[in-house]
TrEMBL record:
Keywords recorded for this protein, A-Z: Oxidoreductase
Matches recorded under Gene3D superfamilies: 3.30.465.10, 3.30.70.2520, Uridine Diphospho-n-acetylenolpyruvylglucosamine Reductase, domain 2, Vanillyl-alcohol Oxidase, Chain A, domain 4
Any Pfam family: FAD_binding_4
FAD-binding PCMH-type domain sequence ranges: 15-185
Gene Ontology MF terms: D-arabinono-1,4-lactone oxidase activity; FAD binding; L-gulono-1,4-lactone dehydrogenase activity
Protein name: FAD-binding protein
Keyword Glycosyltransferase: no
GO CC terms of this entry: membrane
Length: 437
């Protein structure tokens, strides 16, 4: 299908564009035809997924390819636990698609609205000191390059391109399918507790290394961390899921309904934010349950926000968060959203925020109707002092010259881009800023 472009907006309402043309290919061949046509016409092409990136990484002023018709399981290698998915498959579809084969993703983030191609291309990750981001689970993918060719990249075919293509920012081509290395389905026991912030910071390194999946949230204006520890259990272990009413009260009524109202009111009356934060720490984060892994990893997020997240060397996280806390107090800001702290294992993907180093993540947020720039820029200065790397799909203010200094294989990635998209068919303003022309 081809249509005149209507205005496209991302989920956070931080980016919008009116594409010259929108196409909705339903096969790899249709993607190839769309890219070839754009090349002939001298137009840029961008594939979009769920629009859950906060940056302009998917903004398409030229031809916008919507891949919603490229969904589902294409092939399964049950012996090796590998599943090939069409690129437009949403993460929330995966539990139903994988469970018949007794499989699951090894790790997930807490949002599942993204497409598999969008999530991996921007560096989406969960938490767990021994686990990599979603892109580390890729063993093969098929892309349409900037020359209009269909290219298979795998462990046995064009293998030298895998470290670039697994996490390619949409700069190397349009992904049409991805093969993931899955694991046997498993349960997670979730223990969520409020704990003193300083004690949590002191124990962060040990818990990030020893626990399967550890993270915590800190509400500014409080001295309490809401810790989340998820432990992996066999699929046949006893399930003790949250009751429907209890989950609704915690996640929907408090986590979304009441919180939306407070954020909206807080933009006009900032003074209400600190007392609400102190109340929130008392009402949330104290439960213990066991369920299928996706039901524990994922949380429904209905309140719109804008986010910046930085990866820094894991050992730097406690001091960096203390600096952010001091910054907020010194500036007198009223920050309604909690700060999230997670971890990931080092990996080999060239543009991964965890490339070649065990990483900790500090994510800051603001309600979508608030201007985040002053807060985000000030936090970014702190993170850059620790050799921080910004999440590609979340807001930041870095450029190619700045980023080259923190990514050892930056120029190797650019060389692959020169090979696969020499005319910059897949470029847009964001990619030009972070990768160069």
């Amino acid at each position: 299908m081809t249509a005149t472009g209507a205005t496209w907006r991302n989920w956070a309402r931080s980016e919008k564009v009116r594409p010259a043309r929108v196409e909705r290919p339903s096969s790899a061949e249709a993607v190839q035809r769309a890219v070839a046509a754009a090349i002939r016409q001298g137009m840029h092409v961008k594939a979009v997924g769920a629009g859950h990136s906060f940056t302009g990484i998917a903004v398409a002023p030229g031809v916008q390819l919507e891949l919603g018709d490229l969904r589902g399981v294409l092939a399964v290698d049950e012996a090796r636990g590998r599943v090939t998915l069409a690129a437009g498959t949403n993460l929330y579809q995966l539990p139903e698609l994988l469970l018949p084969y007794g499989l699951a993703l090894e790790n997930m983030g807490d949002i599942d609205r993204q497409t598999i191609a969008g999530a991996t291309s921007t560096g989406t990750h969960g938490t767990g000191g021994s686990f990599g981001g979603l892109a580390t689970q890729i063993v093969a993918l098929t892309i349409v390059t900037g020359t209009g060719d269909v290219l298979t990249i795998s462990e046995t075919e064009n293998a030298e391109l895998l470290p670039a293509a697994r996490l390619g920012l949409g700069a190397l081509g349009v992904i049409v399918d991805i093969t993931l290395q899955c694991v046997p389905a498993f349960l997670l026991q979730a223990v969520e507790r409020p704990e003193p912030l300083e004690e949590t910071l002191d124990s962060y390194l040990d818990r990030s290394s020893m626990e399967d999946h550890f993270e915590f949230y800190w509400f500014p204006h409080t001295e309490t961390a809401l810790t989340k520890t998820n432990s992996r259990l066999p699929f046949g272990a006893e399930r003790r899921p949250l009751g429907r009413v209890g989950r609704w009260v915690d996640d929907e009524l408090l986590g979304n309904g009441v919180y939306r109202g407070v954020c909206a009111t807080g933009t006009a009356v900032p003074a209400i934010v600190p007392p609400f934060s102190r109340l929130a720490q008392k009402l949330t984060g104290n439960r213990d349950f066991t369920d299928y892994s996706p039901r524990v990893f994922v949380t429904n997020r209905a309140v719109r926000f804008r986010e910046m997240e930085y990866a820094i060397p894991r050992e730097a996280v406690p001091d960096a968060l203390r600096e952010v806390k001091s910054l907020i107090e010194r500036r007198g800001w009223r920050i309604s959203f909690p700060i999230e702290v997670r971890s990931a294992a080092a990996d080999e993907n060239w543009l991964s925020t965890a490339h070649a180093r065990a990483s900790g993540y500090i994510a800051v947020h603001r309600y979508f109707r608030e201007n985040p720039e002053e807060y985000f820029r000030a936090v970014e200065e702190i993170m850059m002092a620790y050799d921080g790397r910004p999440h590609w799909g979340k807001m930041h203010y870095r450029d190619a010259e700045s980023l080259r200094a923190t990514y050892r294989r930056f120029d190797d990635f650019i060389a692959v881009r020169d090979r696969l998209d020499p005319e910059r068919v897949f470029a847009n303003d964001y990619l030009t800023r972070v990768l160069g022309a």
